[in-house]
Structures are given as C-alpha cells and as structure tokens.
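step: validate -> pass
step: tokenize input -> pass
step: predict -> running
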Amino acid sequence: MKSFTEISKEKVIIFDGAMGTNLQNLNLSVDDYEGQEYFGFYEYLVATRPTIIEKIHSDFLSVGCDVVETNTFCANSIMLQKYNLQQRAYELNYKAAMIAKRVTNDYFSESQPRFVAGSIGPTNKLPSLEQITFKELSDAYYIQTKGLVEGGVDLLVIETCRDLLQIKAAVCGVFNCLRDAVKELPVIVSVSINEYSKMRLGSDIKAVLVVLQSYPIHAFGINCIDEPVDILNDIMYLSEHSPFSIFCMPNAGIPENVNGSMVYKLSPNEFSWYLTDIVKAFGVNIVGGCCGTTKDHIKELVKLLGNMSLPKRQ
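step: predict -> pass
step: emit ->
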C-alpha cells in the first residue's frame, strides 16, 4: 500500500474542513464537556464525548477527503494549563489519534487510502516576546507529538504558526520525538499571515522558508487566511522557490456576525472554485479547509480536485 508521501507526489491530496466550526454548529451543552470549567474547550471532547468527534471525522470522510486532522489543535500542555489539564496532554492526544484512526479505518480502501494527520497548533505564549522559553515550548510539543504518534497518526501538521521562533521550537520538539520513537512520518508546517503577508511578529514567507530548508519536512504552506485569493502572491513565491510540497488551507471567507453567530461568506461552490484555480495555477498539491468550512465545502472540493493528477509548478 502506498504511503501518504508517495500518493502526495501523484495526486492532489484533500484534507478535511474545520473541526471547530463544525463543533460550534452543534450547540453543545455544559453536560457534553462534563462541567462548566471545560465548557467550550473542544479538545476535551475526545474524553467526554468521543462519538461526537467520530461523527465529524466520518462526515468529512464520507464526502471523499483523503486526510482528517485530529481534534488536538490546542491540546498541548501550555494551552491545557488554562483548564488545569496539563498533566493530561499525552492522554488527550493519544485518545484523539485513536478516535481518528478508528474512523479512517472504516473508510480505508486500496483505491483510496485514508490518513490521519496529528494537528499541532500554536500556544498563547510567544517565545520571541520571551513569554515562554524555547525549551519549555519544545518540550510541550514533544509530549503532544508522543501522544499523537503512539495513538497512530500517519503524519503531523504544525499549523497556524505566527512566530518564527515558535515554528523552530515546534519542529525541534516534533523531530526529537520522532527520533526517540524511531519513526519517520511526514511533517507539514503551515503559517498564518495577515493582509500584509506577514506573521504576527513581522516575519514573511521568505524568512520562514529559509529557516525550514534546514529541516526534513514534507510540505510547507499557509492556513487560516480569510480569502483564498488573498494568498496568491505567497503561494506563487512558494511555487517558484520552495523545495517542499505546497500546503494550502484557507478559511471560507471573512467571518461576519449574524445574530450573534459567526458566519463565513464563501459558499462551498465559491470556496472550491477559488482553491481549484490556485491549485492549477501554482502546482499546489495538498489542500483543505480552515475556519468556516464544512463537509459541504470539502464535498465540492473533492468534486473538482478528487481525481486530479499532481499539477506542474510554474
């Protein structure tokens, strides 16, 4: 059976949509989180309501995506401190990986293998501002990675990065863990940039690419951008200069407050056509949906890109 790395060199890989958006749409109660102190902490649902997480994974897989991400975006020990759950970082990541793997096994076939990506998000502390030490952050990512790897993920995604030093800490933690586990898994790094093509502390895509070229990552790209069209210049730069596969996971447009709820304006059809144009123009080979994207967005994306051979870069 071909690996994720092998398949990503042959066809466009399609990730799932936004876990957080789909959980918000369920209007879950305090009881689902087993207490007011955990209410709204989505990552804790892998312990309290695993069937809910299974259903969301299943919804995305049923419309044809190749990869689902674990419900672990904020499940590092730094973020867990807010809920006094930092000692359960390994456990929650392990459970999340097991849940996702169990569901993907139900959809796995020789004609379309399915994969689980371990989601590794940022923290609320930036090392470049000396809010946390490099070692503390790297150690937190090590523990998170250990839970994900031992839970059975097929690849790892360090996503929504906003600080260059945070990226280095995450990459170090991840690869240190893989080394100790004697594992070789594909690693994707993805940054979030503003309208000026900068991360939160000012680094641009060029600076990040320079740093990452010394690491054995599989793909590099951008996620959590309001409009697919907003990243054209940066994706073009990666198409021309990056030695890695290109990862692209935008939001479903700019969020708007409608009757107290956040609504994303891009329809599934608009979202998928925008992203398809980017794939064809710049040779992007790994795509998916970030904030605001549902199974309907991914369903349309699969219709347009599901059988597409890997496009050539400029």
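step: describe -> Residues 90 and 143 are 6 Å apart (CA to CA).
step: cleanup -> pass
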